[in-house]
Amino acid sequence: MKKTKSKKKALSFPDKAPQDLNGMSKPQSPRYVAAQVSQEASWLSFNRRVLEQTRRPDFPLLERLRFLGIWASNLDEFFSARISRAFAEERGSSSYQSLMAEARDQTEEASRLYLEFLKELEGHGIHILEPSQLTKAEKQYFGAYLAEEVAPLTDLIRPEAIPELASQALYFASGEGLLQHLIRLPESVPRLLEVPGREGGFVRLGALVRMRSDLFLPANQKLPLYEFRLIRLAQLARSRADWDELPEALEARLDGQVSHLELEEDFPPLWAETLRVALELEPWEVFRIAPPLDLSFVSTIVARGPASEKFKPITIEKPKGFARDPFAYLNRRDLLLYHPFEDYGAVEAFAQMAAQDPKVEAVRATLYRIGEENGIAQSLIQAARAGKDVAVLLEGRARFDELANLEWSLRFAGAGVRVLPLPSKKVHAKALYVRRAGQAYVHLGTGNYNPINGRLYTDLSLFTAHPELTADVWAFFSALEQRQAPALSTLRTGSSIRDLLIESIQAEAHKKGEIILKFNHLTDPPILQALEEALNRGAKVHLIVRSTLTALWEGLEVKSLVGRFLEHARVAAFKNKGKWRVWAGSADAMPRNLDRRYELFFPILDARAKRKVLEILQAQILDDRNSYILTPGAQERRWGGKRDGQRLGKP
Prior knowledge:
- There is one protein chain.
- The strands form seven sheets. Strands 11, 12, 13, 14, 16, 17, 18 and 23 form an eight-stranded mixed sheet that branches.
- It contains 19 helices and 29 strands.
- Residues 1-28 have low confidence and may be disordered.
- It is globular.
- It is α+β, with helices and mostly antiparallel strands.
- It is an enzyme of class 2 (transferase).
- Residues 38-128 form the Polyphosphate kinase N-terminal domain.
- Keywords: ATP-binding, Kinase, Nucleotide-binding, Phosphoprotein, Transferase.
- Residues 180-299 form the Polyphosphate kinase middle domain.
């Protein structure tokens, strides 16, 4: 009887407020005043949390190394995109210099961690060799490799062209006395090369180029080489460019201003000043660090390293009967999946069945970051070739994915898929609509229709035939096809998502109220203000914010989860008169998402699905394995506990 009672109590969580979920005790008369944090500073704090995963005692070696590569790629994104506002508005201020100091500190720590990893890797038979450690025969081989495969693709540049140098390419500087030559290594050649005949042996391309500088300098000169790289702001010249204008807009993006310069620590001071002045940078925007620069190349080691030093594959649950006949399944009930623990392949199967079923008349999809190979996109092509009415809202302006999406637009057009015109706002919604024999079915998600991300990110998928939801999804597609703003009845899009969140927060702004918000980014001022008012009226507030949060309150423990999987689901839950209302969707709570994008936020109407989402939220609130507690003054790690919020159904 005790076991039955305990199980019943756990399932009743949706109708009962979690007690002390954060282990915090509120003061009798709380007074919460927000400490403001810039979006850029908050994001750098998140990237420090990423960097700290390299020290996780419960992670295998190569998984810890993977996070070093993720951190490096993140920092490049910071300087190419996320710093844009501060660069334009605050450059030179003390707050901006503080951002640079934090980024520099992380970079120096990453260099130290890289050296530590080299020692650990050696203990597992993986060796990153210096050219001096190569045999004579190996040096001869790599000399031939450089001459045949690398030198013909390498650019030799005069110093006068410094202002035109490319973003994120790896360069070397050389000369006798004055800076005379710049060498740009080809991006098509791997940064890390396997040593033939040495299992686990690698050598860096940059180190080999240093060894044979005579192959790259005029008149076969043998001069020292010094490594450097720079990052430019990457923004489309015309953010509202339609498909016929997009290629030209992409070409113009390379003209962004330089925001960051990295030099190896021994870089000659006079040459360093020459680069800094020519690139119009301030001293604090130039980092001197130990080579190698750009540690993202460690992903090669992770990919080729032994499986024993990686995570064991998780057991993926498949919904019984859904893939075989999703339409019959949805005629009976909704289905909510939690990826990657539950099969992302169900989303692909839904699209595949829509393409194959002769009763399907029409298919609509929003596509944002779908990658180079995509099963859902192929199913849409198959459906169009079968004579079905197929149209896609393919977002050509998805940052850094524009070229891939431009290619997909041509593939779609060639197959008879209508690519809808780009509206004035980006379409970031995640929706797949199918009409079959007059009956509508939809998939709504929190993540991109990307086969890789769908198996690496934690996201929610809702499949439903609920008439109110399917009608709104059709209205969403129809309005944007007609270049009109969508007017929806049940779903929320645009600024109405903000209205929903604020109204729901205000409704729970009392001592019995309870609010749970889970976002990647929570930076919208009106929403944050509503939260502060609710806190000061006694509401219980739980915030799970992965990356950026621009307000922190003393006495409120905000949680950030960073673990094996990237937390990506966006969820809002409100306990209204003793009953939970739960919403999920594609939107983060940021001004750009709510004002300059078309997102979709959808209610979880099915009782079983709602209970499942709330149990996931409860597990993450209780997590003490992957957590950071964010306060105005610090971020405190909570590792090593027994509650893993990144495991389905197991707190």
